[in-house]
Structures are given as structure tokens and as C-alpha cells.
Amino acid sequence: MSLPDDHRLAAELATRAGAVLLEIRARLTAEEVPTSLLKHEGDQRSHEFLMVGVG
Question: Are 6 and 46 within 8 A, CB to CB?
């Protein structure tokens, strides 16, 4: 993969990871979960998403 392709992939993954995080925040905020759980879930899910994306 060339450098421009790497940049495109990084931008796409960042955009999609952001969408995942927004969905998690909306869902868990509606469920009134503690902030610490919201943070943990966001960290975990975004990490998993990115690992699949670069793998």
C-alpha cells in the first residue's frame, strides 16, 4: 500500500470510528449509564473496530 493509500485508509477508519463512538454515546447516554462505563465501552469498541480495519 502506498503512502496516499495509507492516508485515505486512516481518514476512512477515523471517520467510521467516530461514527461508532457517536452511536455508543447516544445509546449509553439514553440508558443513563455511568460516565466511566461510557468511556470504557467507547475505548473498547473503537479499539476493536480499528484493529479489524487495519488487520
Answer: no
